[in-house]
Each structure stands twice: as C-alpha cells, then as structure tokens.
Amino acid sequence: MSDVDWMREALRLANAGTGSTYPNPCVGAVIVKRGRLLGKARSDVTGGDHAEVRALVQAGRAAKGSTLYVTLEPCSHRGRTPPCVDAILGAGVTRVVAAIEDPAPHVAGAGVRRLRAHGVIVELGLLAERAREVHRHYLHQVARGRPFVTLKAATSIDGSLATASGDSKWITGEPARRSAHRLRARHHAIAVGAATVLADDPRLDVRLVRGVSPDPIVFDPRLRVASAGRGFELLRPGVLYLHTHRASKRARAALARTGAEALELPERDAGGVDIEAALNQLGARGVRSLMVEGGGRLLGAFVAARAWQELWLYRAPLVLGEGRPVIAGVGWTSVADAPRLELLRTRTLGVDQLCVYAPVSAPRVR
User: Fold this and answer.
1) I need a surface site. Which of 87, 162, 221, 335 has the fewest CB within 10 A?
2) How far is residue 214 from each of residues 42, 233, 262, 287, 298, measured CA to CA in Å?
3) Which residues of the chain have pLDDT under 70?
4) What per-residue confidence (pLDDT) applies to 160?
5) What pLDDT shows up at residue 78?
C-alpha cells in the first residue's frame, strides 16, 4: 500500500468518529513500518487519549523506526492529556505524514517544528483537501470563531414541513430518519425554535443509530416554553435557552427552576433572537458545529442572515398542498436577490431523496 492508501485509512477513521470527541476534533492515525500496519486509531472522547497515542499503544515497541500517518498536525501542548509529540518522540517514530496543520493558536505549526527539531521527517499536505472536508466543523470554528451551521429539514415534494394543521409525523421514512439521526450525532449542538418545542415536545437526542447526542439549544425570545406550565423534554439541565429582553421575570424564574440555562441576546428586526449574536456567543463557548432542525421560522432566520454552511434537505414523495413552508418569515423582492445554492451530493434513502447544498457565495474553509 502507498502513502495515499494509508492516509485514506486515517481519514476514514477520523470521519467515522466525527461528533464523538467534541470539543476536540476527531483525528485519525495509522502507524506503518516496512509496509506492515502496526496500529490504527481515532481520537477517544474528550479527556481520553488522542489518536496518535492510541495507535502507538497498539504498535508497542515495534513503533521504533515507523511512519505515522495522521489527519491533523500532532499537538505539542499539554491540555487534558500530555502532548502527542512527546509520545511520538518517545516511541521512536522517524517519519510523520500529516494531512494538514492544526490552525488553532495553541498548535499552529508548533508540533511540526518540534518534531523536525528532533530529527523526525515531517511531510505535510497529503490528501489535504479531503482532510479539510473531514475536519470542516473544527476548521470553520477555529477560523471564524463561530460554529459550522447545518440546516436540516424533512419536507414534502412541494416544500412543506407539515400539513396546515401542523401534522408532520412522519413525512419521511425510516431510512431518512436514521440518516437524520446520524447527522445529529456528528454535531456538537442542535437547535430548534420555541414553536417546535411547544408543538412536538422533541428530545433532540440520538436514538435510531449509535452516537453521542448533541447539546440542545432552544431559540425562545420570550421563554414561552418555560411559561407554558408543562414538563417538556427540553426543560432540564444541559439545555440552553436563547432569549431576548422580552422574556418576563416570571418566565426566567420558571426556567431557572428546571435547571436549564438561559442566555439573553440582542433582538433582531423581526423580534426573534439575533442570529449573528447567537453564533458569536456559541463560538465563544467552543461550540464547533450547530445543526438547526427547525421549524420553518428558525430556518428562515438563518437563511435571511446568510449564516449557514450546509443544508441537508430530505424530500419525501408526498404532496401536502398548503402546508407549513420549510423556509418561513423571509422573502426577496426579486429572483436575483435570492441566495443561490450549490448541490454537493444526493442520495436515495428508501423512497426519499437527500440533497445536500451549500451557499454559492460561501467558500469552504481552507
């Protein structure tokens, strides 16, 4: 096998574990000597060993004189775990092939420089484009200071999230719903609007597949959920409510009693939570990626703010007529003003179709 083959395996490992290691990126590592695989691993959960260390443990003493293939530059700082560079040097690895540098300020080439200073051959850039795609959530948040945003919607063929009465279970079939849960598992946080909570009482966890549930966030300008007097699934510790000054003292007190966290943010023109301010605050908290599930008005607010990087649209072969639109509360006076999208990929899921889009005007993080 070639260098490219080994790096592809490291990238496969990293991609498979995306979502399980937040706030850390999920890195893939492979150790090879004279064409023989000695160890391979992806990052453990936060606080556990990084991919390089886990692979070195597998290789044991045989790692001396080996090549390490890794999807992201090894760290040289001490965080929750010791520096990976120390483990690499201690194991006697003589060559490191890294797909891309880690742009985080506390790394930013320091790992590469230290390895080279100790005589290790370091090569950068192998399958770099694929590595940037695999690590796009992490790279975006480091570069922009705010989470990578994925909009997700399940609609009828004529673009409705639900019937006029609000019924939406189930528009798509089980294969599409499993895909949506896999998408949840790949994100650090997941957001819905207050209307969705009041209507559907969602859990926003990962159930249909194996994976780590994202952190729930509710955009609720007036804290209507806390005021409703019901035991909603999302009135609990670990859930963050984003509200404006319009939330009453009674609603804030009611929310506090549930253990959920509240964060007051500026108000946008339409009366909702300002999307830009929300993303800046989430980025400052280290949220790497945010999946926005709806409803239509929250999706519309993100679209209007042009504050998203991908749209995952699950379309079912149903016609709902005058139902609830997937993008609500926003409009343009002319076709020329409307955002143009780039189709990234499509997939058939049972009878449903998944289309993944990106805004044409939004360059991918490099």
Assistant:
1) 335
2) 19, 15, 18, 10, 18
3) 78-79, 165-168, 361-366
4) 80
5) 67
The token pair that represents 36 in the structure block: 């023989």
3 state DSSP class of 45: coil
Computed over its alpha carbons, how large is the radius of gyration of the chain?
A: 23
Q: What is the pLDDT of residue 123?
A: 96
CA–CA separation, 28 vs 19, rounded Å?
A: 13
Catalytic site positions = 52
Q: 246 near 222, Cβ under 8 Å?
A: yes
Assign 3-state DSSP to the chain and report helix, strand, coil percentages, each to 5. 30, 25, 45
CA distance 267 to 263: 12
Tokens of 199: 């209507």
How much is the pLDDT for 364?
55
Task: Tell me the angle at which helices 110-117 and 84-91 cross, rounded to the nearest 10 degrees.
Answer: 20
Nearest CA to 212 out of 242, 232, 238, 231 is that of 238
Which DSSP category does 165 fall into? T
CB 123, CB 96: distance < 8 Å: yes
Q: What is the pLDDT, as a whole number, of residue 167? A: 66
